[in-house]
Amino acid sequence: MIYAYKSKAEYLNFLYCTDIFKKETEMNSNLHFLTKRFRKIGAIFSTIILLCFCCNKKGEYYNLTEALQHPADVRDLDLQNQDGGRHWDNTLTTLPKEIGNLQNLQKLNLNNNPLTTLPKEIGKLQNLQQLFLGGNQFTTLPKEIGNLQNLQKLDLYYNKLTTLPKEIGNLQNLQKLDLYNNQLTTLPKEIGNLQSLESLDLSYNDLTTLPKEIGKLQKLKKLELYYNQLKTLPKEIEKLQKLETLGLYGNQLTTLPEEIGKLQKLQELDLGDNPSLIDQKEKIQKLLPNVKIHFDLKTE
């Protein structure tokens, strides 16, 4: 049964597959491996799985060793640790400095690995547009992160970051920054330099204040600050004229600056689980008459 599908596999390999399957001997070896691995569920399924592994888009790599052997070819490197699918066991404990040789890399996914540090050579990836670092063990980031001038999306959720380097403010093209569930207590004032930022998630951190420079994020549309320890907001919040969604659920807010009423495009404001604001409900509603405001999900 496998032999009957061999010609089709070779044909797809000729059109789309990576170099690893180009030689007939390698094809036969991989077919034999997959046949043994999936023997219990049938040979046809083995062939289908082979085709799924084989037919990656040009420039996509799922193995670090192979990627480093073809540095100029790599556009998308997916090393996230997950079970099933077409990913092998890519659990990483360290990232080699040679990662900086992937000069054409546009997307790097390192989600769900036990990484604790990034090499400074990460800053050499001048064409990188998307960087996924969620679910690791980072406590800090190298200052060279600020060299990624073309970066548009940076995911750092579920780490152990306590601070951010000031160089993060150099990411002039960054549109989305996800810092959900870290251990941040403060933000550098340079956060205000992210002139292209549209979405910022700082939920589940330990922030007690926001820098006034937050008001410089002129393109910000979504700001999520759920479950921090904020007691108030800087009056500069009024400068976020494109802000549409503001999430403040689960903080310790005692008051809101009247300047919040100047957010002309604000559509939704979540103030739930901020007990001290319940008595100010009418005042806040007058400041923002056209905004959908959540005060307490238990009573709404």
UniProtKB/TrEMBL annotation:
Name of the protein this chain belongs to: Leucine rich repeat protein
Domain Disease resistance R13L4/SHOC-2-like LRR: 91-157, 166-244
Domain of life: Bacteria
Transmembrane helix keyword on record: no
Species the sequence originates in: Leptospira santarosai
Transmembrane segments: none
Pfam assignment, any one: LRR_14
Repeat listed as a keyword: yes
Keywords annotated in UniProt: Leucine-rich repeat, Repeat
